[in-house]
Amino acid sequence: MKRKIKMIGMDLDGTLLTTKKELLPYTREILRKAIDQGVVVLAATGRALSGVPQELLEFPGMRYVVTANGARIIDQQSENMILYEKLLPLEKANQLLDVFRKYDTLLEVYFDGRGYVSREHLNKLSHYVPDPYMVNYISRTRTSVDDLEALIQEKQAPMDKVQALFYDLKERQTVLDEIEQWNDVSVAHALAMNIEVNAGGVNKGSAMLRLGEMLGIRREEIMACGDGNNDLDMLKTVGFAVAMKNAESSVKAAADYITGTNDEQGVAKAIEHFVLR
User: Fold this and answer.
1) Residue ranges of the alpha helices (H) in the chain?
2) Which of 168, 183, 203, 276 has the maximum number of C-beta atoms within 10 A of its C-beta?
3) Which tens digit of pLDDT belongs to each residue from 77-101?
4) 167-205, pLDDT tens digit by residue?
């Protein structure tokens, strides 16, 4: 059954992109048809702007992008003008980093749409990330520095988000249990080994609704597709929620419809089935 959809927000990793981080021809064609039909189509990702594939940033008609789990809404057609942002205060970020440093972690900090990691940790990325395609993506999109703490002291600014990649999943769970009790941050995890933290109240769902308000699009006219924990609020918030077949069980439970996997181009299939005339 066709639905009255005016906006579609799509997670990237595990959702729009294949395991190899590719955007396949059928998916490109369906996105193009939706845009030609007047639908606002955008990436809604945990990635910083510098991590969004250039193919999507340059995709004809794809004007907006939600980055850093909803911390920023960006208008690409206006020289990447920031339409909205809510950043993690520096003091809170440092408190989180102090917790993460107690464990075997790779730390990432995000300033102004770019992720930073120490060169030492980036050189042993596979210690923390078993997926070679994810290793390749992170290696290509992060800026390495000699001293991450020195960078933080130099910038003295709030952050888009902070992220930790854990070697030991039990240690990750210990930290997750602790910081989920903090009442002034938003905690999510898109991967089995990571924890990512934003300012309180930040999530992809609130960003999608905010953009909808700017464009005169109602909640019930917004569709979103996702697979991971950082997509959960988005799927619970929008009018029509699509989970990938490869999604976490909690994400599937929140969905109105379960489509194929990301490697089966499930996003495109859902759009063709429910949106295209």
Assistant:
1) 25-36, 54-57, 90-100, 119-122, 132-141, 148-155, 169-179, 204-215, 232-237, 249-254, 266-274
2) 203
3) 898 999 999 999 999 999 999 999 9
4) 999 999 999 999 999 999 999 998 999 999 999 999 999
